[in-house]
Amino acid sequence: MNHFAHLYLARPTVESRVGNLLGDFAQGLDTDRLPKGVRAGLEHHRAVDAYTDAHPEVLACKALFSTERRRFAGIALDILFDHYLLRHWDRFGQGDRSRFIAELYRDLEQGEQLMPAEMARVTRSMVTHDWFHAYQDLEKVGAAMDRVAQRIRFRHQFAGIIEEIRPLDRELEARFLTFFPDLKAFSQSRSHSA
Questions:
Q1: What is the spatial distance between Cα 126 and Cα 101, in angstroms, rounded to a whole number?
Q2: What is the phi-psi region of residue 65: left when phi exceeds 0, alpha when psi lies from -120 to 50, beta otherwise?
Q3: What whole-number distance in Å separates Cα of residue 55 and Cα of residue 50?
Q4: Distance (Å) of CA 148 to CA 37, 75, 100
Q5: Are residues 138 and 170 in contact, defined by beta-carbon separation less than 8 angstroms?
Q6: Which domain holds residue 41?
Q7: Using CA atoms, how far apart are residues 4 and 67, in angstroms rounded to an integer?
Q8: By the 8 A CB rule, do 58 and 77 touch?
């Protein structure tokens, strides 16, 4: 899952939201030194990623990509699933979508002192450029994927992957709509057992 989905699945606290986003920035970090709420969020992020990677609907989505791009299907799906979650906010969200996004941005700004420097830089960009409202538009999702492609340091064919996604959009969306309730239930079961 990508940034928006991880924040959506987090508990509604600054520490949980920081921890749930930290999974993408935790390499080399001494997690034992994190505040308890941040560490719990990080563990939740990792559990969500493991559950997602093994889910049959996600595996079926990855298989739809060409052999040249399948290696990057997981990255593309992470970002695309944020788009689908936003697209279907009326089904999965609670309350006004824009208000929820503003709350996430506020919590990330308040939690910046809990973040490693690179994460703080990325979250500042996320807030400044309003990534989550942009992710509602499939073309902007494609542009975000191309920006990720620019950061890959070896030869690849990830750039332009949105061209493969457009004709698959309905099937990928349908598989997301089957998968995401399972992920949400898994996430909630972890939260209630913690």
A1: 11
A2: beta
A3: 9
A4: 29, 9, 25
A5: no
A6: 3-193
A7: 28
A8: yes
Helix (H) or strand (E) holding 4: helix 3-9
Q: How many CB atoms lie within 10 A of CB 32?
A: 6
Q: Which residues of 43-70 are buried (b: 16+ CB within 10 A; e: fewer)?
A: bbbeebbebbeebebbeebbebbeeebe
Q: pLDDT averaged over consecutive 10-residue blocks of the chain (194 residues)?
A: 92 95 84 90 94 96 86 86 95 94 96 93 93 87 68 59 88 97 93 52
Compute the C-alpha angle 50/51/52, nearest 5°: 90
Three-state SS sequence of 103-152: HHHHHHHHCHHHCCHHHHHHHHHHHHCCHHHHCCCHHHHHHHHHHHHHHC
How many structural domains compose the chain? 1
The pLDDT value recorded for residue 193 is: 45
Residue that the structure tokens 């699933």 belong to? 81
Q: 61 to each of 18, 67, 73, 115, 175, how far by Cα in Å?
A: 29, 13, 8, 32, 7
Q: How far apart are CA 156 and CA 150, in angstroms?
A: 10
Do residues 48 and 187 lie in contact, with contact meaning Cβ atoms separated by under 8 Å? yes
Are 159 and 146 contacting, i.e. CB atoms less than 8 angstroms apart? yes
Element (H, E) at 162: helix 162-193
